[in-house]
Structure formats: structure tokens, C-alpha cells
Design goal:
mainly beta, Immunoglobulin-like, 6-stranded mixed sheet, 5-stranded antiparallel sheet, 5 helices, 35% strand
């Protein structure tokens, strides 16, 4: 549905006349100065944050969880501002509580279906469900909005004056994530990089494993550092090995070496070397070697590289 401003803009554009744009920081004035419709302006994330009257983006919905006897419906109160917190990485969290007189606490996950606007205090009715397959580094409980019971304007927020992400986001009436994800604004705050998710290292490259000496029952595994997300001065590798089976002249004959035969055993931890020696290998056995790159700052691991060794 087109707004009045959009219809007028299109009508003037059709006549070929010059458009005199207003100077207010509203969607219609700013869209005019960009020679765009209001809808086009508000749908552009690099521009829409400049106009307070652009509607907030809707959160993508996750698949519904099946109903369970453990599901809980409860009242949740949401504060009119967010604060810095540390979950899997530094970020900002909503402040919530479950009774009017309780202390505020961090909510590290989103409320599904709820579009938060700073400057307003909310009373919500929410559904809390246990997620059988939660995403990595996420809570095992999922909170979904049932309805907004009440929304009131909070106390005027006094923003700090430092050139940091939290201060500048406050002055723009944005969350820190919104500010730091806006390329037209984020360059102003050097600490925006602190709010970025940790970089996952790519997998180690060109890995090989060769027998070194049958008499000493050793082999050597080597590899090249990952292409991205890995600092050779600080980050490390993990090397593990496990026994798969005995070698046999009959292809159809496979023998396990025991109930713990495919349990991974540590070869090396916290090592920056791109080579590791495998010892105490048994002749006639088939082994699997696993190499993983680890970002030590966030403890995020790469996809492992796996090799097989017939000894």
C-alpha cells in the first residue's frame, strides 16, 4: 500500500519537475533527498536508521516447537534500555524480570516475534519452551511472544558523550548491534569490532600422514595453516587419533580392537606447530587422525581435517 508521500513523489517525478525536499530527519524528507520512495528508503538498511519513523525490521521466525507439558506461560517485564553483556562474545542484552519488584537480569537470546524499541518499557505475556536441538552457544530454552500487554515510555535516556559504540548507539536511539551493523555509522566507533561474532578458522590445509619408522612404531602428520580466521602467533591446533580396525587380507573381514576402539585419543593440544608425531602405533592396524584449528581468543574451532593411516 503506497503512502501519500510516495504517491506525491511519483506524481511529481512523472511531470519531470525538480523536487524541493524538506529538511526534517523523517522518512519522507530523507527519501525525497535520495530520490527514492519512502518504502525504498525504509527498506534500505544503510539509510533507514537515519529516520526514526521508519518501521523497525521484523525478526525472522524460527520453526514452531511442538507443544509439551513442560511449556510455561509467564509475564515478562522488559526495561526501556539495553546494557552491555558477555555471552559467547561481547554484545548487548535486553534487561528483563518476571515480577514488578524483582531485580533486572540479562536476557541473552531474542524473544521470538517481539520487535524491541529502546525508550519503552514493556509488559509481555510469553511462552517459554525447551528446545530439543538448540543452536550452538544458545540457550536450551526458547522464548516466544504471546502478546504485548502494555508499553509505556520510559524515563528520558541521557547518553554518554564518548565516541564508543554504546554511547553513539544511544544517541541514535539504536541498539549497539544495529549501530555496528550499519556501515554508514559503525566506522565512527573503533570498538564496534568488539561486538562482532568471533571468526571461525578455516580448516588446516594440505594435511598428510606418513609412516616414519616401523621399528619405533611412529608416523608423522603435517599440514599447512588455515587460509583465514587463524593467527599463527596466538592460535593453536588440536591433534587426535583413534583406531578403526585391523587390516586383513580378506576385504570382508573387519575386526574391532575393543569397545573403545573408535574413541579419540589426544596426541597434541595447545600447539602452534604444523607437525605432530604419532607414537606407539601397532602394525596391521588402521588409524584415523583428526586435526583441528582453534581460535584461542573465543575457543572457536574449525571443521576438522581427517586422515587415514594404514600401519
Amino acid at each position: 500500500m503506497k503512502t501519500v508521500a510516495t504517491i506525491l513523489f511519483l506524481a511529481v517525478l512523472a511531470t519531470g519537475q525538480n523536487i524541493a525536499c524538506c529538511y526534517a530527519m523523517t522518512a519522507s524528507c530523507l527519501a525525497c533527498s535520495e530520490s527514492m520512495t519512502v518504502e525504498e528508503f525504509c527498506n534500505d538498511p544503510a539509510l533507514s536508521s537515519m529516520a526514526a519513523d521508519c518501521p523497525p525490521p521484523t525478526m525472522p521466525s524460527l520453526p514452531s516447537l511442538p507443544k509439551s507439558k513442560d511449556d510455561k506461560r509467564m509475564t515478562m517485564y522488559v526495561a526501556d534500555h539495553q546494557e552491555e553483556c558477555i555471552g559467547a562474545f561481547p554484545t548487548v542484552c535486553m534487561l528483563v524480570k518476571y515480577s514488578p519488584n524483582a531485580e533486572w537480569e540479562f536476557l541473552y537470546d531474542n524473544i521470538q516475534g517481539f520487535n524491541y524499541e529502546p525508550g519503552y518499557e514493556y509488559e509481555l505475556r510469553v511462552l517459554v519452551q525447551k528446545d530439543p536441538n538448540p543452536p550452538a552457544d544458545a540457550s536450551m530454552y526458547r522464548t516466544s511472544l504471546i502478546r504485548v500487554v502494555n508499553r509505556e515510555e520510559g524515563e528520558p535516556l541521557i547518553c554518554c558523550m564518548a565516541m564508543t559504540a554504546s554511547c553513539l548507539a544511544c544517541s541514535e536511539s539504536m541498539t549497539v548491534e544495529e549501530f555496528c551493523n550499519d556501515p554508514a555509522l559503525s566506522y565512527m566507533a573503533a570498538d564496534c569490532q568488539d561486538y562482532a561474532p568471533p571468526m571461525v578458522p578455516s580448516a588446516p590445509q594440505y594435511a598428510t600422514v606418513v609412516r616414519k619408522n616401523m621399528n619405533t612404531r611412529t608416523a608423522i602428520v603435517t599440514w599447512v595453516a588455515p587460509e583465514s580466521g587463524f593467527d599463527c602467533n596466538y592460535d593453536v591446533y588440536e591433534v587426535d587419533i583413534r583406531t578403526l580396525r585391523k587390516r586383513s587380507v580378506k576385504p570382508e573381514a573387519t575386526f574391532r580392537t575393543g569397545k573403545n576402539s573408535n574413541k579419540w585419543n589426544v596426541v597434541a593440544r595447545n600447539s602452534g606447530e604444523t607437525m605432530s608425531e604419532l607414537t606407539q602405533l601397532e602394525p596391521g592396524m588402521v588409524y584415523e587422525v583428526r586435526i583441528t584449528a582453534v581460535n584461542t581468543l573465543s575457543n572457536v574451532k574449525s571443521e576438522p581435517v581427517k586422515l587415514r593411516l594404514k600401519f
